[in-house]
Write a structure and sequence with these properties.
The protein is α/β, with parallel strands linked by helices. It has eleven helices and eight strands.
Length: 252
């Protein structure tokens, strides 16, 4: 039987490419501006994406406000809005009403999100944000490392979803002993989260090679994958790159 796991495609790095040339052009789409993240999002949907993930960063390094609004209005699947735990981002999310939000840590010096959100140490702050989204009918996911205290904290504040940070595992993939340890951490974290009533998602560093092992983590609901799909899209196109990942997720 096929193992049905949903695929959320993160399109941030299509905007990274655009910003490399058109950051100071004065507009985010139209005229000479390319690529258009909206077109990439729609192509990902045609390729079989179950949802589109965008991360509006505080410094607007790639995705822009206009991208989020246009994609939200035009997409036919689900929007997963990654965001820092700031009042400005909370207000923006409540305005655009994505299907889900994923609360992530944010460090302006990093190229991409590194490390999970420390829910345990700021539980009251994060609980208040989750409460606002719950009341608005927006599902909240917490991007956390596969650690017991973080998972238990997520369950305590009634966040319906967690997204396990798979970066340490992905970075250790070609180091057999370390890889085994990191994979075991993910498996145990998924089991614990499931036992506490949490929906289990995962993301970061998942690619066309390690997906064969990642897909066997128990209780997975959705994987959020971006960089490897955007990279493969440069060679075969967005639709084909998404379709290929969907095939790999089914173990074919």
């Amino acid at each position: 039987m096929d193992k049905r796991i949903l695929l959320g495609v993160n399109i941030d790095h299509s905007a990274t490419l655009r910003q490399a040339r058109y950051r100071d052009y004065g507009r985010d789409f139209g005229e000479n501006v390319e690529p258009d993240p909206l077109e990439i999002a729609l192509a990902a949907e045609r390729g079989g994406a179950d949802g589109i993930t965008v991360h509006l960063r505080e410094d607007r390094r790639h995705i822009q406000d206009s991208d989020v609004r246009r994609i939200r209005a035009a997409m036919s699947t689900r929007m997963n809005f990654e965001m820092a735990c700031t009042d400005v981002m909370v207000a923006f999310a409540l305005e655009i009403k994505p299907n889900s939000v994923c609360l992530v840590p944010e460090n302006r010096s990093e190229v991409t999100t590194e490390g999970g959100l420390d829910v345990f140490s700021q539980i009251n702050r994060i609980a208040s944000i989750v409460k606002k989204f719950n009341e608005a009918g927006i599902k909240t996911s917490l991007f956390i490392d596969p650690e017991r205290k973080q998972i238990e904290a997520a369950a305590t504040i009634a966040a319906p979803w967690i997204e396990l940070h798979t970066g340490a595992y992905a970075n250790a993939y070609f180091l057999p002993e370390q890889r085994t340890l990191e994979y075991a951490r993910l498996v145990e974290a998924a089991k614990l989260g499931h036992s506490l009533g949490l929906t289990i998602n995962a993301g970061h560093g998942i690619n066309y090679v390690n997906i064969a092992e990642v897909r066997e983590i128990p209780h997975l609901h959705e994987l959020n994958i971006g960089h490897t799909i955007m990279s493969r899209a440069l060679l075969i196109g967005t639709e084909a790159a998404v379709a290929l990942m969907k095939t790999k997720m089914l173990g074919r």
